[in-house]
Amino acid sequence: MEGVKGALVVLGGGESGVGTAILGKKQGFEVFVSDKGTIKESYRDVLIDLEIEWEDGQHSEEKILNADLVMKSPGIPDKVPMVRQLVEKGIPVISEIEFASKYTNATIVGITGSNGKTTTTMLAHHLLQKGGLHVGMAGNIGDSYAKMVAENDFDTYVLEISSFQLDGIVSFKPHIAVITNITPDHLDRYDHKFENYVASKFRIAMNQTESDYLIYDADDQVITDWLKAHPVRSRLIPFSIKKKITPGAFLEDKNITITIDNDQTTMSTETLALEGKHNVKNAMAASMAATLLKVRKETIRESLQDFQGAPHRLEKVLKINNVQYINDSKATNVNATYYALESMNVQTVWIVGGEDKGNDYADLMPLVREKVKAIICLGLDNSKIIDTFGRVVDLMVETYSMEEAVKVAYKIAERGETVLLSPACASFDLFDNYEDRGNQFKAAVRKL
Description:
alpha/beta, Rossmann fold, UDP-N-acetylmuramoyl-L-alanine:D-glutamate ligase, Protein-Tyrosine Phosphatase, Chain A, 3 domains, six-stranded mixed sheet, 17 helices, Mur-like_cat_sf, peptidoglycan synthesis, nucleotide-binding
């Protein structure tokens, strides 16, 4: 494919699609962008400005099936007829990260996982930047990787990568891969088979060699079982908060110890900017990536202390009448909410609900018994939440708008307690997306 530039068709005119179009045009492809939905005006303007051909509201089959190469946006399932036809015709269908990686020689830190990947990506980027590396951050966060490659010349990239993006790779290979954890999520895209989703996450290491690294959570049984059954070639660098491990990172007496190539670093968790056990793990993963890229120990220690977390992830909004309001709108699955409840140290009024992705709330039961004094449901269908926790929590209220939910929480919460928005569900029943939900929460709290 190198050298022979042909027709590049981009399916989906969102962030990754338009990024791919920009890079494709720069690399001399004849680019056509096709979106069955509506392309946002801001993206349309970019395409028009660059004189890239596009359509929305339809897929022109003849034109698409004439492609030499197709980049499919991660939101489009492999099962749609258009994609199936392309595959049957033998036209390569790849993801944006696969396309973009062909046009850079940068060192890549690739981060995937069901939860924690955004925080770990931001944290790793922060550590590397503070360590003086010329580093960019892309993928599922901020600008698309393709756009970054087209417009910058970074030596290193930290990429947040979803399973959908990994499904479309062929030769993409991060020098350092991180798997934060694997819990059931998006199973509707994987024939409702958890093992298909796990296999998809592990594609991050499929092209790695003995000179590359895989950082992973050794406390995650799903990951350790998979590695036993499907060994990878890369060097394994595990982390744990339950047991001592070397090489790798472990937690003991509030201290993180990292050992790589017989070189040891110790850091106190007391000074970490982010709270909660899951953030100790995120800090371990990011710190090991930084250590492998030769960032000084002192820089890593300092940088962990001044890191500002990801928006909508356990974000402290305001304290009103000595009640802390926390926005964890990014918790779109049960596992993420588990971490949020686990890090609460006081009685909590919990706002939960939304579009359920087949949730099993049973895992949350011990935490809810111990920490939750009231549940405020915020969704169009709250029956499952009410059935699960109705006998455990004395006070349950159903609400249908963010403003209403926050007003009810304000009445219920007493001094020294916390109001936590951690929905454990997708947001599409009442909101545009989790950001919209989090922003509405923050606005409602500020109006109190």
